[in-house]
Amino acid sequence: MTSNDTAVLRVAGRPVGRYVTRPELPVRLSPRPYLHPVTTLSGTAVTELSPADHAHHLGVGVAVPDVEGFNFWGGRTYVRDQGPTELDNHGSQRHVAFQLRDPDGFVEELRWVAAGGELLRERRTVAATELTDQAWALDLTFSLTNVTKDPLSIGSPATNGRPGAAYGGFFWRARKEAAPPDVFTAGTEGETEAHGRRADWLALAGSNWTLVFAGATVQTRRDPWFVRTGEYPGVGSSLAHDARLPIPPGETVVRRVVTVVADGRLGRDAAAALVRKAVSP
Questions:
Q1: Which of 198, 48, 216 is nearest to 126 (CA)?
Q2: What per-residue confidence (pLDDT) applies to 265?
Q3: Rounded Cα distance, 258 and 154, in Å
Q4: For residues 266 and 213, what is the distance between their CA atoms, to the nearest angstrom?
Q5: What is the rounded CA–CA span in Å between residue 131 and residue 116?
Q6: Alpha helical stretches, state H, 154-279
Q7: 261: β partners
Q8: From CA 216, how far away is CA 275, in angstroms rounded?
């Protein structure tokens, strides 16, 4: 680990991820902690930070475009019957404290703040585990608690009228290369087949790296995957796919995604085997 503002994740003594807790970002990008760069064990970067195509894509983290009308994703807000619109509605995720810090992970408390008030309190747990000499796993759990006196709900552009755009929740902006990465699940192949569907795991394979995303709880596996490869490489787990997700006062929403980070291009059998190892009790 390093300073109070950053944490370095290590696997077998090697740095594999840098976590920034207090980034200096414009309000329009919905400032929030993020992991970047994340690398394979051989040092290949598999994340991007504020790329030209989407400046609000910040490596690996948790981002939600609509929490009771406030934008914790960054950029424009999708308005029904109007389309993407610049609004003064951006929130921020504010690091409160690390409750635990080790070389291979941390437990963090965050406040989700908008319009001067706190909407959600988050507990985020991140752990890095060695799987083989060519693969490791990033285990990320987030718990969002409604700390207001009123019901809150989480939405997405899809629930606000934009088909196929149910992003919001865990999100990984991957490395953009000359050719789009391949995407596949245990039973499907290609962006069209994988996007918006449920699958126990989903793999993104680039030139010399593979990411395999797995829902590690029953509830997380119920969330369909948000997948982009052609426009840009990114994968997320959709909290609000076809309906808004309610969070009553004092209630908590919990999700856990485990991501295998591997050198080389994995096939289905190898990807499935590493997922089993990564999420086994």
A1: 216
A2: 98
A3: 22
A4: 13
A5: 43
A6: 191-194, 218-222, 268-279
A7: 136, 211
A8: 10
Secondary structure class of 28 (helix, strand, coil): helix
What whole-number distance in Å separates Cα of residue 270 and Cα of residue 12? Answer: 21
Strands in 42-102 per DSSP E: 60-67, 70-72, 77-79, 83-85, 92-102
User: What's phi and psi for 192, nearest 5 deg?
Assistant: -60, -40
Distance (Å, whole) CA 258 – CA 172 = 12
Low-confidence ranges of the chain (pLDDT < 70): 1-4, 281
Question: Can you give the pTM of this predicted structure?
Answer: 0.97
Q: How far apart are CA 259 and CA 139, in angstroms?
A: 6
Give the position of tokens 């490395």: 175
Number of H helices, E strands in the chain: 3, 20
What digits encode the pLDDT tens for the residues 202-220? 999 999 999 999 999 999 9
For 11, other C-beta atoms within 10 Å of its C-beta total 21
Amino acid at 179: A
Structure tokens given for 245:
């997700």
Which residue bears the tokens 């059998």? 269
Which amino acid, residue 224? P
* Token pair 């999100």 in the structure block, residue: 171
Amino acid at 165: A
Closest of 140, 145, 196 to residue 171, by C-alpha: 140
